[in-house]
Specification:
The chain is mostly beta strands. Helix content is 2%, strand content 48%. A hairpin with a 5-residue loop joins β32 and β33.
Length: 449
Amino acid sequence: MNFSEAFKLSGLLCKVSPDGKYLASCVQYRLIIRDVNNLQILQLYTCLDQIQYIEWSSDSLFILCAMYKRGIVQVWSLEQPDWHCKIDEGSAGLVASCWSPDGRHILNTTEFYLRITVWSLCTKSVSYIKYPKACQHGIAFTKDGRYMALAERRDCKDFISLFVCSDWQLLRHFDTETQDLAGIEWAPNGCVLAVWDTCLEYKILLYSLDGRLLSTYSAYEWSLGIKSVAWSPSSQFLAIGSYDEKVRILNHVTWKKITEFEHPVTVANPRIIVYKEVEKSPRVETESLTFPPGRAQASSLFSTQSKYDISQVPVTLQYVKPVTDRANPRIGIGMLAFSPDNCFLATKNDNIPNAIWIWDVQKLKLFVVLEQLYAVQLFQWDPRQPRLAICTGNSKVYLWSPAGCVSVQVPVEGDFQVLSLCWHASGDSMALLSKDNFCMCYLEREEVK
């Protein structure tokens, strides 16, 4: 495993292009495009204000920079650096911006969710979609890029509109049996749309492409409901994480629950491997010490290394009692993700913040528990194999695969706390992001048997 030097970064804005050739990063109002392989700067663009969001077009030819405070989006071309585009929403304001799957239209959501403006880069035409729903997951595109689902709210009722992305024609429009729709997500095969209700009511609805209601699932009533949702890559399973600290798996044939995964504080099953991160002080050769110590020597003196030990079960995990009289309590399944080969599901229970649970999807059983020293900030699967990268807001990155797990110190000078990470599409490298810097981590490909 090798690491690059650290480069400046602001706002955790660092993204690899879809074709895997370029790396975009932001420093205040500057957008820097680098070659992924040697990290040489290819282009440097200057925006009108501090950049708050960036997104690559699907073909990696354009990149948009959103400045929400100013209500402006600027678009830059990699092929023609002199070409640029500025979209100003004016007094309507701007709260969200994204590309359409064709990479030639930009969808801007105005303040107060009054409308979505569709801007065409080719024809310079503008279209408007009224009544978008004010929710975090209100727009969803099918994986093949042919259709867009949009959550809408009008006359105090929730609706879904399905659009054809090629010409933005309305394909279907139907109301949903939800009190206050919270999010929508297409199955990877683009055949089924999952729609889930507010956290105040446990309800998930499954719709076909022609707007038919295929099934409704509700696990319980009169308690906080759904917190996170994830489709398996094969579209065979839908995992639903909820505030009762359980994950329920629905199957794609009957849309009934086939199992539920509990996240208890004590892991008692002797067949479960529990990896516990433990700190170890670095060995210091006293003969080679100099005073005052050099910078490299000082950082090695004061950095604590860590490794994983296999704990003897039963193991009691670190539990944080949630404050239940406030909104959005830290309880329940806040993160879940399937591995790309469909074999594993990784989950995090927010009131056991230091633990990651990895489930065997084929056997529908718990496989491994990782207990970290600090609260898990993020985990993300390698796009090519069952290998999970984890960061906990310290100067280490952690990797798990069925072969075992490892803790790696990021050898960067200064205070480099890994708050986020993003994999390269090849799975051979990933960008590690801290508050003010980023670096690339290069991995050697493991043989997948």
